[in-house]
C-alpha cells in the first residue's frame, strides 16, 4: 500500500474513532467505575470488535451484510437494545448520592465483555467500514495489504480510547470525576438511550 494512501486511511480511521458515541461513553463509564485498568481493557476490547468489522470489510462480507436487510436489521435492533440496556444501567446508578455513586464498581472482565459487545452491536461501524474502508480494498490486493488495513483500524481505535482512559484516570482528574459520578452517570445514560433511538431511526457516521 502506498504511503500516501495509508495516510488517508489513518485520517479516516482517526475521524471515526474520535467522533463522540457509545464507545466514548463506555470508556468513560468503566474508567469512572474502576480506574485506569478497566478503562484501558474496555478500549482494547472495543478495538478488537472494530478489527472484526474491518476484517469483514476486507473480505467483502461487510457489504454482503448491508445487502441482506433481515440480517442488518437484526444487528441494528440487537445493537440498539444493548445500548438502551447500558443506558438504563447508567441512569439507575446515577440515582445514588454523590458518595454512593462511586460504588458503581466495574471489573476488567466486565469492561472486556462490554467493549466487544458495544463495538459488535453498533451497526454504524458496519456502514462506516463499508462506505469508507472498502474504498481502500481492491480485488488484486495482497493478504499483507489487507492485514495492514485491519491493523491500522484496530490500532488507531484502541490507541485513541486508551489515551482517553489514561487521561481520565489521572490522579487529578479521576477524583474530580468520581465526586460528580452521579451526574456523569445520568448524562451517560441519557446519551446511550439517545444513541439507541438514533440507531433505530437511521444510521450515523462514526463510532
Give an overview of the whole structure.
By secondary structure, the chain is mostly helical. The protein contains eleven helices and no strands. Helices cover 79% and strands 0% of the residues.
Distance between the termini: 25 Å
On the 0 to 100 scale, the average pLDDT is 78
Q: What is the tally of helical segments? A: 11
> Count of DSSP E strands?
0
Shape, per Cα inertia axes: globular
Order of helices and strands: HHHHHHHHHHH
Structural class by sheet pairing and helices: mainly alpha
Q: In what range is the share of β-strand residues?
A: under 5%
Rg: 17 Å
Helix content, binned percent: over 70%
Low-confidence stretches: 96-103
Characterize the main sheet. Answer: none
How are the SSEs ordered, and which strands pair?
Elements: H1 3-18, H2 22-34, H3 36-58, H4 61-67, H5 69-94, H6 98-101, H7 108-120, H8 123-131, H9 143-168, H10 174-179, H11 181-201
Helix pairs in contact: 1-9, 2-3, 2-7, 2-9, 2-11, 3-7, 3-8, 3-9, 4-8, 5-11
InterPro entries: LeuE-type
Membrane topology: Multi-pass membrane protein
Main location: membrane
What are the key terms here?
mainly alpha; 11 helices; 207 residues; 79% helix; globular
In short:
It is a multi-pass membrane protein. The protein is an all-alpha fold. It is 79% helix and 0% strand.
Amino acid at each position: 500500500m502506498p504511503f500516501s494512501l495509508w495516510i488517508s486511511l489513518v485520517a479516516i480511521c482517526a475521524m471515526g474513532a474520535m467522533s463522540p458515541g457509545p464507545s466514548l461513553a463506555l470508556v468513560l463509564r468503566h474508567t469512572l467505575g474502576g480506574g485506569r485498568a478497566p478503562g484501558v481493557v474496555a478500549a482494547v476490547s472495543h478495538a478488537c470488535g472494530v478489527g472484526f468489522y474491518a476484517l469483514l470489510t476486507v473480505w467483502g462480507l461487510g457489504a454482503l451484510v448491508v445487502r441482506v436487510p433481515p440480517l442488518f436489521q437484526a444487528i441494528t435492533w440487537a445493537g440498539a437494545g444493548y445500548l438502551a440496556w447500558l443506558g438504563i444501567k447508567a441512569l439507575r446508578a446515577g440515582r445514588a448520592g454523590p458518595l454512593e455513586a462511586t460504588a458503581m464498581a466495574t471489573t476488567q472482565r466486565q469492561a472486556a465483555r462490554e467493549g466487544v459487545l458495544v463495538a459488535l452491536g453498533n451497526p454504524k461501524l458496519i456502514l462506516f467500514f463499508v462506505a469508507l474502508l472498502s474504498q481502500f480494498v481492491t480485488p488484486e490486493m495482497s493478504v499483507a495489504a489487507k492485514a495492514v488495513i485491519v491493523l491500522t483500524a484496530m490500532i488507531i481505535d484502541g490507541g485513541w480510547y486508551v489515551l482517553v482512559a489514561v487521561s481520565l484516570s489521572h490522579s487529578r482528574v479521576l477524583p474530580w470525576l468520581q465526586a460528580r459520578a452521579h451526574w456523569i452517570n445520568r448524562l451517560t445514560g441519557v446519551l446511550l438511550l439517545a444513541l439507541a433511538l438514533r440507531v433505530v431511526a437511521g444510521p450515523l457516521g462514526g463510532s
